Amino acid sequence: MQRQTLKTWLFLAPAGAWFLCMLVLPLVVVFVFSFGERGAAGGYVPAFTFDNFLNLGARWAAFKNTLTLAPTGTLICLLIAYPLAYFLALKTSPRWRTLLLILVIVPFWTSILIRSYAWIYLLGGQGIPSLLNALGLGNPRLINTPFAVLVGIVYGYLPLMVFPIYVALERLDKRLLEASSDLGSPPWRSFLQVTLPLSMPGVATGCMLVFILLMGEFLIPAMLGGGKVFFIGNALVDLFLQSRNWAFGSAVAVALVLVMLVTVAAYLRLTRRWAGGRDDVSLM
Amino acid sequence: MRIYALAVYLFLYIPIGIIALFSFNAGRHASQFQGFSTQWYGKALSNPFVMDAFQTSLTVALASAVLATLFGTMAALALQSVRGRLRLAFDALIYIAVMVPGIVIGIATLIALVTLFGWLNPILAAIWPFAAKAPQLSLGYGSLIAAHGLFAMALVIIIVRARMAGMDRSLIEASADLGATPWGTFRQVTLPQIFPGILAGFLLAFTFSFDDFIIAFFVAGSQTTLPVYVFSSIRRGVTPEINAIGTMVLAVSLLLLITAQAILQRGRKAE
Question: How many CA atoms lie within 13 Å of A190's alpha carbon, on the beta-carbon side?
């Protein structure tokens, strides 16, 4: 028994040490630095002050953009993803289902950088705008607008929304739908009263995942927003790599993590109400 | 309904397809296809900066995936017999590693390591016993591998554990009853069953590291990974050469992902 315990500890030690040094310690450093002051040449000087947090308003635009475009993007993802998940879970033959599902998930695991770059191409001057121009539909400016950022968001995160909704719909007891139609309800009523409520745990999981990942987004606004539409992530890059104000940057990072924690807490409260819904969603 | 699904699939794949198509464009033009050519691939592959960045990415991805798979699998195996507070702490750490955005991990690692090196370097210089100058600790390969290894390890633990949850425990008991040593049971019963999970975890860990931009952006130091190189060249303007690099990067990750999926699917069917 004693040997067993020793072996367990030895097996856990490398991963545990790695997590402590590369996750816990750095996060504690950010937390501590958020109460410090900026050094004369940038960086950090130890101090204990709440000034950084009181100053968060200086980056209000970044918070405002993130907190408006992230929920909007999440909602659009949901509206596009739900019918697709519904189709995959209930309207396809099992033979094709796996392949179709893999085709949805695979883009999510490929480089978001290259995928956003594709939209620079499509939305840029020589892409869709020139096509519209040739058709006599005007020459709208698409790149470097909130619209372009939203397109990039939906493109990047749609797969992440489809998957949990699909899992919820696929687990749904099909006999409930038969019962509902045998009792005389039209399909739309069965959908509203049976399918939709039972798929809500999947919807909540998808929205939570997409929303919290969007909160920390940097690449999509940097590539498609052209410096005009910037998120908290862009403010962080600026604070750490350009203006080198580590103390204030740390406070912004702490605020970002706090908003995410609130989101996760709200999600957990919501899903606890739908007891019985399993949330063991994996992405593979 | 089918048309809708088709439209969504087109939305997902057309942009990638266009990048691939224009990487074979003979001309520089971004919207007119002027004939087939592989010249941009030749240009990309003979560009020393690209090859340097590619080599860095490959080294980092390989090292972090190997370490993460080894330590992650060990942890997943050990966690089977762990309950109570230690288990809770580990589960929490895995969750945090996956949930905290890459950008926060990136800046946290950056400032923690730079501060640490700031303390250590003078000490190291003072106690260095040899005549030569003491080495300076700085960001680079080490920090890239350590930071990528973190997320990769959480990924491996999650996948291997999911695999173990679907494992038939009675086989292990049978093996022990028949007199096999714990190591023999592990090698002949447990390992073959969880191996698809380990392999898929390795491939995903490699893909994650190879594609990651945001963490590398902060902790790469004097090194340049391929995504960091691509990002800075896009800043300077869109060129067909980037299309060629992008297509190659996509092809590599698609290949690895499809392999990982096939391994996982086959493993599921075998049960």
Answer: 16
Of A18, A121, A218, nearest to B238 by CB-CB distance is A121
Q: What is the pLDDT of residues A18-58, one digit of tens each?
A: 999 999 999 999 999 999 988 887 778 888 988 889 989 88
d(CA B161, CA B165): 6
Q: Is the pLDDT of residue B86 over 80?
A: yes
- List of chain A residues whose C-beta atoms are within 8 Å of the C-beta of residue B218: 240-241
- Report pLDDT digits (tens) over B121-160: 888 888 888 877 778 888 999 999 999 999 999 999 999 9
Does the beta-carbon distance from B217 to A257 stay under 8 Å? no
Give me the residues of A, 10-49, that contact B with CB < 8 A.
11-12, 14-16, 18-19, 21-27, 29-30, 33, 44
Contact B257 A113 (CB under 8 A): no
Q: Which residue segments constitute the domains of chain A, with CATH numbers given? A: 60-273 (1.10.3720.10)
Q: Which residues of A touch B139 (CB under 8 A)?
A: none
What are the helix (H) ranges across B128-225?
141-165, 169-177, 182-185, 191-211, 214-219
Q: Which fold has domain B49-270?
A: MetI-like fold (1.10.3720)
Tell me the three state secondary structure of residue A180.
Answer: helix
State how far the Cα of A250 lies from the Cα of B107, in Å rounded to an integer.
Answer: 8
